Amino acid sequence: MSDERSTRRIRLGMVGGGEGSFIGAAHRIAARLDDQFELVAGALSSTPERAHASAAALHIAPDRSYTDYAEMARTEAQRADGIDVVAIVTPNHLHVPVARAFVEQGIHVICDKPLATSLAEAEALAQRVRERGVLFLLTHTYSGYPMVRQARELVADGAIGDIRIVQVEYVQDWLGEPIEQQGNKQAAWRNDPAQAGPAGALGDIGTHAYHLAGYVSGLRLQELAAELSTFIPGRALDDHVQVMLRYEGGARGMLWASQVASGSRNGLRLRVYGSTGSLQFDQEKPEELWLTRPGQPSQCLYRGVPAQAGSTATPHRIPSGHPEGYLEAFAQLYRDFARAWRGEPGVALPGLDDGLQGMAFIEAVLRSHREGMRWVRL
Amino acid sequence: MSDERSTRRIRLGMVGGGEGSFIGAAHRIAARLDDQFELVAGALSSTPERAHASAAALHIAPDRSYTDYAEMARTEAQRADGIDVVAIVTPNHLHVPVARAFVEQGIHVICDKPLATSLAEAEALAQRVRERGVLFLLTHTYSGYPMVRQARELVADGAIGDIRIVQVEYVQDWLGEPIEQQGNKQAAWRNDPAQAGPAGALGDIGTHAYHLAGYVSGLRLQELAAELSTFIPGRALDDHVQVMLRYEGGARGMLWASQVASGSRNGLRLRVYGSTGSLQFDQEKPEELWLTRPGQPSQCLYRGVPAQAGSTATPHRIPSGHPEGYLEAFAQLYRDFARAWRGEPGVALPGLDDGLQGMAFIEAVLRSHREGMRWVRL
Amino acid sequence: MSDERSTRRIRLGMVGGGEGSFIGAAHRIAARLDDQFELVAGALSSTPERAHASAAALHIAPDRSYTDYAEMARTEAQRADGIDVVAIVTPNHLHVPVARAFVEQGIHVICDKPLATSLAEAEALAQRVRERGVLFLLTHTYSGYPMVRQARELVADGAIGDIRIVQVEYVQDWLGEPIEQQGNKQAAWRNDPAQAGPAGALGDIGTHAYHLAGYVSGLRLQELAAELSTFIPGRALDDHVQVMLRYEGGARGMLWASQVASGSRNGLRLRVYGSTGSLQFDQEKPEELWLTRPGQPSQCLYRGVPAQAGSTATPHRIPSGHPEGYLEAFAQLYRDFARAWRGEPGVALPGLDDGLQGMAFIEAVLRSHREGMRWVRL
Amino acid sequence: MSDERSTRRIRLGMVGGGEGSFIGAAHRIAARLDDQFELVAGALSSTPERAHASAAALHIAPDRSYTDYAEMARTEAQRADGIDVVAIVTPNHLHVPVARAFVEQGIHVICDKPLATSLAEAEALAQRVRERGVLFLLTHTYSGYPMVRQARELVADGAIGDIRIVQVEYVQDWLGEPIEQQGNKQAAWRNDPAQAGPAGALGDIGTHAYHLAGYVSGLRLQELAAELSTFIPGRALDDHVQVMLRYEGGARGMLWASQVASGSRNGLRLRVYGSTGSLQFDQEKPEELWLTRPGQPSQCLYRGVPAQAGSTATPHRIPSGHPEGYLEAFAQLYRDFARAWRGEPGVALPGLDDGLQGMAFIEAVLRSHREGMRWVRL
């Protein structure tokens, strides 16, 4: 580890995320929060005016505002002060080509999920990332919550015994009306197979639910059986997902993802039941983690409370009782990336393996659905 | 309606429910709570000492304490002050033969669920009940909660639009260890196919979940696909149930019932999502019903609060803020029976239809499970 | 203890509680719930028609329906099958004269709170009760909740160390409008000094809050300073109470009672903080008790959960997860009375001491308020 | 408004907040979150090594790392690229002298609360700030929560009618042991009258509670009566505060602040009851605001939900359901400052008036306590 690496801010570029983007703004706040990154370059939009206006608003120098990501990759790679890492916050179909352009230049990648629009595409990228030896962070944001990490550590430490049941759900209602047919851009690309790939709610939020379940339980999924639904007429992709799960070791479970569940905001919830206890996490109350053992009081674990199992896993910025939230969880992933980049030991980033598993999950769900909900092996 | 019928207490007999029985005691409190019944006869146990000791403790006259339910039915039918109705709180396999004995004597029946151990047996009973013209109440207790009734009325009134999604679960942990192999009587008969029938958790609590979903949503289930699991080695019946649901009109859903979900007490929860809102009910917080419409504040409806839709459906004994619970919900079913018996109009008891549907549900789940989770029509 | 006493139902009479009465109905359900009482006589109203109609509806024999409580006391005392105990559910000003009439006849008393309308009156009654040796139960209902008893036991066992702070509140909104001027009978007598005594919300609910705080903390109040308010124009008595508390041993606290706190139902809440932990109880969620120690997870204790401190104090009828509520807590007091009546050991009823302390509390609050909120010793 | 002012980052300096400081780190994250500030200078500690190490870690140039705040004020005022604003995050006794040094140079001030250690000192500063015409932000963080702002707007819009009752509390437990005598620096200065001033918990958190109550209710406090306690032996200042409140217009209330309430984390809670409804806010669940009207369902308002009264007041960065927390609330104050600095209209910063009122509150509480809890006019 060079001394310079250990102290200076990491130079960040961004592809996508121009004005009005939700996820681009979230990435930028996440990058700023712990002051380990500076945003210095971007291809924020393929529309030149929008790209340059967005860049100016973000204090990016005009000569580092690009409209073509390939040019950005080439140019930045040649600058002495070129970006160290690129954040990719485009619609899904561009994740792989953009990542590839930067990987070829040896530039590290932070990429939104899902990794790709097909497993084959994802595997080819993964191969190239390994060959080039760059860092690759897939932003499964919810794994950045301190209480999610504590849950994972509790499970690994045997706090709930052998896992029997995994119940995970991710429900929203923002696609409860056909807003993609009414000018909403966020909705439009997510329901356009050319941009989103073959999965709708499945790719957008189902993959988060699947990742969270695996991240906390530590279990590999062996088989699934799934039914997709599309409740809104005229919609091209699924907006509702139901999956039966068979995990290694005999655990059973169910996954439900929906973007038409009226009255839901961002309801990502995980419950894991083992032979000696259970854990419950609700993303809308992220400072809490419930641990209950049979015949005992329920325990509400809280971020930053010292005397609780697994608490070594919970980094935090402010004391317990001063709520942290989604942006702090997101920032945790950037902080993890920074630690990995600086060469600190013991950092495990969600990355290519998670992305490949997510793509395998998507493809298995699509296959099971097409084939009448038969069991499909992963 | 005779004048006598309109005022006197209803004479109640009981079969099963001797000392130590949970559900027998619950029935008796439910019958007493609103003072419309008096318990005057019983075949509380097939063991004479236990039967008579239990009867004495309950102030039943010695000559009306029986050990043979058939004799009880015949004898009581001939008394001028014989019982008006019998409550059947035996293990499942006796529900039909006991009910039959009393029905043949023209005595009304209050019966615990599930109705029978097979659909065929249930249908034969139903036929005979109709022929004899007696009242038949199946104690789907949870439909007695005021907020469950309010939910049903809200759905019927269109408060959440067309239903899209039904999510129901009933989870406990009391069978998380093999206590049926360790002398627990409640557990022993429930896991003995000769007494419980072919369904374990499925019959014991899955039927409650299924009933609640149909009761509130007003929808008929058309198809299901199910997987049963048995987590505890040596257990004869299922202790964990997962079902995919296809309702008439296109609604989708999932049902989960488990008695090995560590850290769960009596977690019956229902969520129904329609095109314009959703309802959520949790049996462990039965005074509350959540109604949320997209883009609006969540509303927490509360028993006895006047200015809320559907509140005409919520009978209650004490003002809002003085919590009622499980026993009051149970008593509501007895109160409903009393109203029906007294000839009051507009009373719909959960009864044979519910019981037949429950048995059809059980058989469909068993079939789907046997056949690799294929879709089965009801 | 005679054998008869150990088994037969206790014969109960009631004064007050005719049709439309909330608290009379609650007493009757409480008496019935555990089947240890039978209601056999009553002076349910001073209006003959209302008294007799109410009695008939309750299956009280016509010759035991009275309109004069004094006559009822004399007559019942002379019957071989006369009542064992009378429940007094009248407006406050009659508590003492009615109790006195029955006590003189050697009949036990169950009396609603507050005990009297003045401390002097209460002391005279207490003296007479002691001389006559009858049982006296004051229905501080909330002390019947299992989790309240568990809280008391936890404090006594030192689970939270030395108590520092007691915060108690009881807030409602049903007197937020001048309904006593609009025909509401419940409100009318409570705001009529001739019937309610000199305290409004203070006597009606402030005494419950005061009792609960003392019951759980085990501490004696030494001094208080109070301000009463009347928010509704034309109202004769206080509808809002604020009190500063100094307990023996140095603990400090605050008590707040209000019947004009818009949007409150029946918000009785207690928090007790000791040197090593705290307890929180909310009457609207009576199955839960929160125990939190510094730097540790919060524990949610639940009725009927075996492995928790103090659980020996929690009697219950149905398993954990099947919610019990207000009526079951009320019934617990009747059950306790029955145990005392049958001569069972170890039963401590809320009674005269609690009533005398409550009256002393009321008088101290009134005095402090009159004298500009100065500190008053109890 | 110059064009430059409308776009460039604001140059921020900081006094106090060296390594290990909680509040300094919180200020810095708040300043970074919305990318409107850059930290360019600091007198982070009076110990040179600590000052310079902290500055280096924060990427402050060596020539702008000071150890003397007076020198920093003079030097920065003379630089063409000197700081625009200074953030003061020292112990209380330095707030006024530091602020004064920068105000004299015409540099804007962001200052932690309480404003001063005496009202006289605060008034002198306020006079000078007005004369110099600089901006002054007092960081009453909790007024930056979107739901607090929505509450304020709801009250102002009459959503709960005329206010009757204000209940506010702020409870923690981190001073439940004498940690100031055991080397904890945060605790040590807070309990040293020379650094903290004459108020302990009163100044540290009581002022937050007082501010929040006034901010939301819009009411001025007219009189108070207070008792302070010190539970931990050897502690120089109060650690527990109880206050009775009389607001203009007849509203009544209570304020409770404690740092020895075992099992409390950061429990700032406000409840305001009006003639037609009430509002409840709990800082530990800051995304929610409860609005309840008598006889109606409770409404849980949520940040970012469009169809709810007062929502125009709720700025936010990420959609509803993605929790924001304490740091985002803090950042809101910095964002407000930036808007004011850029000359945008309609920005009301918590500032000198709030600080003066806070000091008047502290002095009134101290006086009332000294004089036996007599009523003191503000």
UniProtKB/TrEMBL annotation, chains A, B, C, D:
Residues 148-279 form the GFO/IDH/MocA-like oxidoreductase domain. GO terms for molecular function: nucleotide binding. Residues 10-138 form the Gfo/Idh/MocA-like oxidoreductase N-terminal domain. It comes from the Bacteria. InterPro entries: Gfo/Idh/MocA-like_OxRdtase_N, Gfo/Idh/MocA_oxidoreduct, GFO_IDH_MocA-like_dom, NAD(P)-bd_dom_sf. Pfam families: GFO_IDH_MocA, GFO_IDH_MocA_C3. This is Oxidoreductase. It comes from Hydrogenophaga intermedia.
